[in-house]
Amino acid sequence: MSLLVVGSVALDSVKTPHGEIQEGLGGSATYFSIAAGCFTKVRLVAVVGEDFPERHVAFLRSRGVDLRGLCRTKGKTFRWKGSYGEDMNEAKTLKTELNVFETFRPALPPAYKDTSFVFLANIDPDLQRGVVDQITDPHLVACDTMNYWISSKPRALKKTLSRVDVLFLNEGEARQLAGGSNLLTAARQLLAMGPSTVVIKRGEYGALLFKKDSIFWAPAYPLETVRDPTGAGDSFAGGFMGYLSRQKGITETRLRRALIYGSIMASFNVEDFSLNRLRKTKREDIERRFRAFRMLVRF
Amino acid sequence: MSLLVVGSVALDSVKTPHGEIQEGLGGSATYFSIAAGCFTKVRLVAVVGEDFPERHVAFLRSRGVDLRGLCRTKGKTFRWKGSYGEDMNEAKTLKTELNVFETFRPALPPAYKDTSFVFLANIDPDLQRGVVDQITDPHLVACDTMNYWISSKPRALKKTLSRVDVLFLNEGEARQLAGGSNLLTAARQLLAMGPSTVVIKRGEYGALLFKKDSIFWAPAYPLETVRDPTGAGDSFAGGFMGYLSRQKGITETRLRRALIYGSIMASFNVEDFSLNRLRKTKREDIERRFRAFRMLVRF
After folding, report:
1. Burial B146-179 (b: 16+ CB within 10 A, else e)
2. How far apart are CA A135 and CA A5, in angstroms?
3. What Rg do the C-alpha atoms of chain B give, in angstroms?
4. Which chain B residue is nearest to residue A257, measuring alpha carbons?
5. pLDDT tens profile B133-167
6. Section A94-109 average pLDDT
7. Cβ density class A14-33: b for 16+ within 10 Å, e for less
């Protein structure tokens, strides 16, 4: 079934203990599309400026990404500059230039309105809801968010969550949004806000999938070198949604496997800067890692 | 096969956000014995003072613990006082009175010298090695350690590790002992120090079991309330060693299941202060939780 992502396409400058990159291809919609693109064709809605390199457009197109929703507009492309310390768990933002992203109002091309699977990357919750409004009959709506929206627009975010089936967020955000320190209690409160599935990401500690009556615990793939964690969350969502959108119906088992595919895509992504590792990732690499995940938890 | 623990028996005063206890039964050998005691009879070597309450001795005996190695000596019992903050991950030590534990030199009763499975709880690595020397032909030796010994007696600790089959330690200790931040690399370095199995405990994030050619990832049982984490590591080791000592031979699968039983015993232990939850834990509770662990990771 069709899959849509609405988010950012950006140029990222990132420094980690393992190296650095200047104005590499980045952005939530980019990471999501390339990760999900290993499973299915992705419809993308985002905005770039006049300076956005044509080679990046060509790359996205070469991976089968539907770019009818990519708007090129007057001004400069969104730029983010950040760095990671030794523990790699949290990015330090050094500079954010929103540029054309500042006035981004996602308008779906008519051909996208019949989309079945929708991923609302981390943008203003009012804009996220505006996207849902434009879709005729969505089958599954997923969204990401961040501490900034949780503290600045909690009411708008909760309105959006009432329209969402799957909520992705990290551990700290889950605690912040639910207002408590126990993760189980937090998950229960988040489920009460609307989503039937809550995915809590914990970086190198894996991820949890909560439903009303079940919990699934996915490990993270043990890696000797994490070069650049940028985009891990969006690659995760891309693997999850890409796999799920290709299944006939959503079952508990498929949701669990989707979480594993999300973990796999995130594990590839962090092995190199920008999209460098995902570019080279083949379907057989993904399946090999899937088998490794099985071995990791078998007892 | 027979199982021995050498460690502390103590009186703990603990305060957490969920309550507090004054001079409750504690100590590494105690937690280990009661957890392992759900699987097998445990031989204990430890020291207490003249003030050690007889009811605690009676309790240990009632759980089948072999107390021929419990030495009662002139002076006061080891006391520890600590508190935990909201996140419950690290204890803050408020007071340590070693008392009779200060001059503890573990001497095994002759009847213990044929022990097959040995757990050296967290004591001076020279004393740990002295215990191994007293055992005729151990089948499997496991040990725990802590940041204090890693920084103050690294050479003695490494000598001990060369005699050990299974090393238990937490994530921070693993990084400290191996001298690096990546856990995979650290585990490989720890394996090179002697143990054929390294168990890295990560609290609410679960535990990892490393062997030369494999990794096993155990989840932690998701709990809504963690009342008191004191003794979690020793209960963990108790479940692990108790289960393993009852198996016919050590295989990869049995080591993995041992890790799950360790996680289970730790999960019960933290649900209440002192031994209060483990006291009530029945074999069927353990098996129910074992099945829950399976469901938690199935995909």
Report:
1. beebbeebeebbebbbebbbbbbbbbebbbbbbe
2. 12
3. 18
4. B299
5. 999 999 999 999 999 999 999 999 999 999 999 99
6. 96
7. bbbeeeebebbbbbbbbbbb
CA atoms of A157 and A146, how far apart (whole Å) = 10
Q: ipTM score here?
A: 0.93
B121 confidence band (pLDDT: 50, 70, 90): very high
Exposure letters B103-115 (e unless 16+ CB within 10 A, then b) = ebebebeeebeeb
How far apart are the C-alpha atoms of A113 and A136, rounded to whole Å?
6
* Measured distance between the N- and C-terminal CA atoms of chain A, rounded to whole angstroms: 35
Residue whose structure tokens are 């939850």: B277
The pLDDT of residue A229 is: 96
Per-residue pLDDT band for A181 (boundaries 50, 70, 90) equals confident
Q: What's the whole-number average pLDDT of chain B?
A: 97
Closest Cα to residue B246, out of B64, B67, B38?
B38
Work out the minimum CA distance from A7 to partner chain B, whole angstroms: 30
Residues whose CB falls within 8 Å of the CB of residue A72, separated by 6 or more in sequence, listed in order: A47, A48, A49, A50, A52
For the record, the structure tokens of B3 come out as: 């199982």
Helix (H, G, I), strand (E, B) or coil at A113: coil
B88 band by pLDDT with thresholds 50, 70 and 90: confident
Question: Nearest-CA residue of chain B relative to A203?
Answer: B205
Chain B residues in contact with A226 (beta carbon < 8 A):
182
Cβ proximity of B37 and B65 under 8 Å = yes
pLDDT, one tens digit per residue, over B25-73 is 999 999 999 999 999 999 999 999 999 999 999 999 999 999 999 999 9
Q: A299 vs B219: CB contact, 8 Å cut-off?
A: no
